[in-house]
Amino acid sequence: MRIAVTGKQGQVVQSLLRRGAETGLDISAVGRPEMDLSDPASVAAAFSALRADVIVSAAAYTAVDKAESEAELVFSVNAAGAGAVAEAAARIGVPVIHLSTDYVFSGDKASAYCEEDATGPISVYGRSKLAGEKAVAAANPNHVILRTAWVYSPFGNNFLKTMLRLAETRDHLRVVADQTGCPTSALDIADAILAIATRIITDPEPSLRGTFHLTGSGEASWADFAEEIFAELLKSGGRSVGVERIPTADYPTPAKRPANSRLNGDKLARTYGIRLPEWKQSMTIVMQDLVNKGL
């Protein structure tokens, strides 16, 4: 199985490349300078030259707050760019697996969101990702859209690594406690993508296509997440860091965040038999990876 994935530095891209190195899978990362999602012509050219069995659309504009002042660029990448990737996959006759986000929802629901729930993004980033979902579906019927949330890993920039960096000099941190979601390891996402790819390149069953939710099992607030990070850090010989639980109102940002980012993963479990591990378990694995590297 030959997999081409958009982007080179993202958390999911790096996680897929690690899994490829571990298993011997042929995984190619395609990004700048040969491909720029804001330039559809470069997307088509990049993938026409590749021999791939499936394309993973993982690259995106993800600076959520900065997106509020760069809407045109954000939509060119997350909507038009995503559509161009799906169209390129359709042109060479292969499926596309596209990564989306919990930000397509408003966060007003009291329970975890299902795939059938009405969308209602409250930020430029969320609106661009929803437009990207629609563009992917329109460009290539042979698609799987995976909505995920609160992604962390040993790679790139993410909440877990930010907490560890701040813990080097801070004894106390204020962390939002009234936003709830499902922390998700990018390594777990990579494992799920590989399992899904294996199925869809050989099985034409229509129910395997469409939109699915893919997040770590369980739920947490950002403050819960931080407390678990610092508890694990302490076990590894790190410093003790206290967490003050604060409301979102005390930590204003340019972009609004959904208060409820929980995603229900039952559809993916029923269709593919995939349910990601409990988030604390996966977080411990990532923490150990970072500690072993001295990060």
Account of the protein in words:
This protein has 295 residues and is of the alpha/beta class. Helices cover 41% and strands 16% of the residues. The chain is built from ten helices and twelve strands. It has helices at 11-23, 40-48, 64-67, 71-91, 124-139, 159-167, 186-200, 222-235, 266-272, 279-292; strands spanning 2-6, 26-30, 54-57, 96-101, 143-148, 151-152, 172-176, 180-181, 184-185, 210-213, 220-221, 242-246. It has a six-stranded parallel β-sheet, sandwiched between helices. Helix 1 (11-23) packs across helix 7 (186-200), helix 4 packs parallel to helix 5 and helix 8 crosses helix 10 (279-292). It is globular and about 55 Å long. It catalyses: dTDP-beta-L-rhamnose + NADP(+) = dTDP-4-dehydro-beta-L-rhamnose + NADPH + H(+). This is dTDP-4-dehydrorhamnose reductase.
